[in-house]
Sequence to fold (262 residues):
Amino acid sequence: MIDREQLLAIRELNLAGKINQMGNGELNNYVRLLNSFTENFPEQEEKIKTALEEKDYASLAKRLLAVRDIMEEIHADELAQDCIKHINGLGSIKHEKLEAYIVYLLKSMSILSIDIQMTFLQNQNAGQDQPLDKKPPKNDEGSQKEKTILAVDDTAFFLTVLKKALRDVNCVLNCETSGYNALRFLTRHCPDLFLLDIDMPEMNGYELAAKIRESGQKAPIVFLTGNSKREYVVQAIEVGAADFIVKPINKKDILSKISKYI
Fold:
């Protein structure tokens, strides 16, 4: 059974004062609701994107109300409010502003979906030697050493955002634009953290992560993704993912994730 404390740690869920009042039957039903959300969200996401693209504001409002109901069921109260923030004026909002609002909303729900899936996977992997979300142990020498990050992405945008975000962080950032270049880097270096894009040509992030582990490198791997489908999350975990940064990325997201591992 899923641990109540694990659910309380999912920051997007407002469970304080609620989770401990649930009996085992209620808790099991709540977990089923969470699983249903993560399974069905990609389809809901596509419907919302389609309604936005077609400027079908009546359909968009209907979709947002449906998602609001789901958010209320799983006690994601802030997201429920975000769903209806502009519901009464969708047709009067400039499309660019509406698009930015929808991108933010869908990204927030993708983060929630991935956080839930990670929590359930951690529960399944309880007792294994390598927890999914913990920093590697430090010794006195390691705690003073400047940390090294290897970021791999075939687009310049992510690497540029990353460099700006880490400008004031005490670390050495190394950037590569392909999996093959990254593997050559690893013949000479041992990073403390990997940031990997998933969708790359020639060698995708999953394949690169598998080769990183095969080489003996044990540092945490954080994937950059815009996809919260269960099969993608599970595949990432299977090749060693510790966490995810959800697109579109920003400085706050990067610093929040990286601070957990270095």
User: Anything to note?
Assistant: The beta strands are 147-152, 171-176, 193-197, 221-225, 241-246. The first helix runs from residue 4 to 8. Confidence is low (pLDDT under 50) at residues 129-133. The domain at 140-258 is CATH 3.40.50.2300 (Rossmann fold).
